[in-house]
Amino acid sequence: MEDKKQNGGARPGAGRKSVAEEKKVNEIFIKALRNINNAETDDEAKVLFAEDLLSFERGKMFIAEHIFGKPKDTVDQNVNINSFELKDVIQFK
From 88's CA, which of 43, 56, 70, 75 has a CA 20 to 30 Å away? Predict the structure, then answer.
């Protein structure tokens, strides 16, 4: 019973990373952006990165989703197949 297989529940190493680790990763990416764009400050590097993203359609969508949030996906569930009439879809002459 010592080698119990963990099928659920808390697992070692699972969960959100520490705030210090998140800050460390952010600093690494900001440093990389500064090096790539030859920027003087962190803010300048962020602006140049945003401008680069805006040059692509997917980049525009990425920025819009992060500023305004993703649109809700709505599905019309009131579909009745039994009352389908072909003459409503196609008009014959």
Answer: 75
Q: Which domain holds residue 47?
A: 19-71
CA nearest 37: which of 50, 22, 27? Answer: 50
| 90 in a structural domain | no
Give mean pLDDT, residues 71-87. Answer: 70
Instruction: Report the number of distinct structural domains present in the chain.
Output: 1
CA dihedral 63→19→72→53, nearest 10 degrees, is 10
In this prediction, residues 66-88 reach a mean pLDDT of 73
Angle subtended at Cα 31 by Cα 29 and Cα 34, rounded to the nearest 5 degrees: 110
- The model's pLDDT over 5-43, given as tens digits with 9 standing for 90+, comes to 767 777 887 888 889 999 999 999 999 999 998 999 999
Q: Does some domain include residue 42?
A: yes
